[in-house]
C-alpha cells in the first residue's frame, strides 16, 4: 500500500492536502445549512428548491468546465472554480432570505462544478491506469477527513457566529487557489489542431458511446441516494425523533463516522478492489448502499417508538450508517476509474463533465421529491424508494460490466 502511495504524482498530493483543509471548512458549514434554511423559510418545498438550484447550475458548469479543461488546461479552470467558491461563501455571510440564498446556491453550484471535471481529468493525465483506484481513493480520503472533523467543529461554531465561519472558509479557499497556481503543474496532453475534437464531434462521441450512457443512467439512482442522505438526512432525523432538540440531532456524529471510516478504510478498499471486475464490485457496493438507506429509513423511527435511550440509539444509528458508508466506499473510486479508462485521451475533461450529469440530475430531483414526502411527514418513504432504486442500479452496473468484459474478450480474439 505504501509503495502505491509513493508512486502517485505531486499534483495528487497537492490536491490531497488542499482538499483536506478546504473540506474541513466546507463540512463545518454544509451539513447545517439545510437546518438553517428550514428555520428561515416557510416550507420544506422552498428548502428543496434552494437545495436543487445548485445542481441545476452545476449541470451547465460541468459540461462547460470539462470542455474548457480539454481546450485551455486543467490548472486555470481549477483556479477559477476555487476563487468562485470563495466569493459565494462570502455572500452566504450576508444572506438570510429565500432569493439571496437561492442565487448563492446557484453560484456555488456553478463554480464548484467547474472544478471537478478538470481535476478528475488531471488525475487521469498523471496516473497510470493500474494506480487510478489508489489515486481517486486517496483524494476521497482527503475529502472525508473534512467530513470527519468539519461537522464536529461546525456544531460548536456555526450557531455561535455564522458570519465568521463563512469568512474563514472563503479565506482558506483563496489560499488553496494560490497554492494551485504556484505548485500544480499543467497536465493537459499536447494535441495538434486536428486531434482536438469540435463541440459537434464531442457530442457525437457521447451519443455513440452506449456504455457511457448506460453508466450515467445507472448512476442517477446512486446520485439520488447520496443527495437525499447528505442534504436531507438531518430533516429526516428531526422528523423521526420529534422530541430531540437541534443539538441532540445525531447527524453530525453520523457524518463524522462517515469521514473517519473513509479516512482509515477508503484507500485500502480502493487498492484491494483495483483489479476486480467492475460489474461485480458495483453490484456489491450499490446493494449495500441501497440496503443501508432503507435501514436509515426504518431504524430511527423504530428506536424512537421503543423509547430507546439516547446513547444506545446513537450507537445503533452509527452501526447502520457504517453499513451505508461501506457501500459508498466500495463504489466511489471504481466509478471514477471507470470513466478515466473509457474516455479518449483528448476528451477526458469532457467525459468527466458529462459523467457529472448523473450527480446533477440526482441532486436536483432527490431534494424536491424528498421535500414533498417531508411536507406530508413521510420522509422515510422517500428514503426507502430511493434505496430500492439504488439496489436496482447495482444490477444495471453488473450487466454493464458483463457487456464490457464480453466486448474486450471479442477484441482480443479478433
Automatic annotation (TrEMBL):
The UniProt transmembrane annotation reads 12-37, 43-65, 77-95, 136-158, 164-184, 211-231, 251-269, 281-304, 310-330, 351-374, 380-400
Q: Which PROSITE patterns match?
A: MFS (PS50850), SUGAR_TRANSPORT_1 (PS00216)
Q: What are the protein's GO molecular function terms?
A: transmembrane transporter activity
Q: Does the keyword Transmembrane apply?
A: yes
Subcellular localization(s) per the UniProt record: Cell membrane
Pfam families, from UniProt?
MFS_1
Please report which protein family the annotation says this sequence is part of: Belongs to the major facilitator superfamily. TCR/Tet family.
Taken from the UniProt entry, a GO cellular component term is: plasma membrane
* Protein name per UniProt: Major facilitator superfamily MFS_1
Amino acid at each position: 500500500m505504501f509503495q502505491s502511495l509513493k508512486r502517485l504524482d505531486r499534483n495528487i498530493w497537492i490536491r490531497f492536502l488542499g482538499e483536506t483543509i478546504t473540506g474541513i471548512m466546507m463540512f463545518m458549514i454544509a451539513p447545517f445549512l439545510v437546518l438553517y434554511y428550514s428555520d428561515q423559510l416557510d416550507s420544506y418545498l422552498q428548502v428543496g428548491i434552494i437545495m436543487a438550484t445548485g445542481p441545476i447550475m452545476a449541470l451547465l458548469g460541468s459540461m462547460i468546465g470539462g470542455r474548457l479543461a480539454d481546450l485551455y488546461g486543467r490548472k486555470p479552470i481549477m483556479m477559477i472554480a476555487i476563487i468562485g467558491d470563495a466569493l459565494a461563501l462570502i455572500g452566504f455571510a450576508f444572506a438570510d432570505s429565500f432569493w439571496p440564498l437561492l442565487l448563492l446556491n446557484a453560484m456555488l453550484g456553478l463554480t464548484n462544478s467547474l472544478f471537478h471535471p478538470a481535476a478528475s481529468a488531471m488525475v487521469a493525465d498523471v496516473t497510470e491506469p493500474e494506480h487510478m483506484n489508489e489515486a481517486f481513493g486517496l483524494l476521497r480520503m482527503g475529502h472525508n477527513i473534512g467530513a470527519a472533523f468539519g461537522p464536529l467543529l461546525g456544531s460548536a461554531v456555526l450557531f455561535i457566529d455564522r458570519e465568521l465561519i463563512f469568512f474563514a472558509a472563503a479565506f482558506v479557499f483563496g489560499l488553496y487557489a494560490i497554492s494551485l497556481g504556484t505548485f500544480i503543474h499543467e497536465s493537459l496532453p499536447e494535441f495538434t489542431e486536428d486531434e482536438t475534437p469540435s463541440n459537434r464531434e464531442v457530442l457525437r462521441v457521447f451519443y455513440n458511446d452506449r456504455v457511457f450512457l448506460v453508466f450515467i443512467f445507472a448512476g442517477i439512482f446512486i446520485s439520488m441516494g447520496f443527495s437525499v442522505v447528505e442534504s436531507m438526512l438531518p430533516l429526516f432525523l428531526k422528523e423521526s425523533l420529534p422530541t430531540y432538540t437541534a443539538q441532540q440531532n445525531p447527524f453530525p456524529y453520523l457524518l463524522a463516522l462517515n469521514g473517519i471510516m473513509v479516512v482509515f478504510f477508503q484507500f485500502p478498499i480502493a487498492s484491494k478492489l483495483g483489479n476486480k471486475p467492475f460489474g461485480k464490485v458495483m453490484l456489491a457496493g450499490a446493494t449495500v448502499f441501497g440496503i443501508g438507506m432503507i435501514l436509515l429509513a426504518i431504524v430511527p423511527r423504530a428506536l424512537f417508538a421503543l423509547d430507546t435511550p439516547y446513547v444506545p440509539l446513537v450507537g445503533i444509528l452509527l452501526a447502520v450508517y457504517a453499513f451505508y458508508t461501506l457501500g459508498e466506499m466500495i463504489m466511489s473510486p471504481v466509478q471514477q476509474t471507470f470513466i478515466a479508462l473509457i474516455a479518449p485521451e483528448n476528451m477526458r475533461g469532457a467525459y468527466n463533465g458529462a459523467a457529472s450529469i448523473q450527480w446533477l440530475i440526482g441532486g436536483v430531483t432527490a431534494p424536491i421529491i424528498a421535500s414533498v414526502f417531508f411536507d406530508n411527514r413521510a420522509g422515510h418513504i422517500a428514503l426507502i424508494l430511493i434505496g430500492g432504486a439504488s439496489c436496482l442500479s447495482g444490477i444495471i452496473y453488473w450487466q454493464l460490466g458483463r457487456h464490457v468484459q464480453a466486448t474486450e474478450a471479442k477484441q482480443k480474439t479478433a
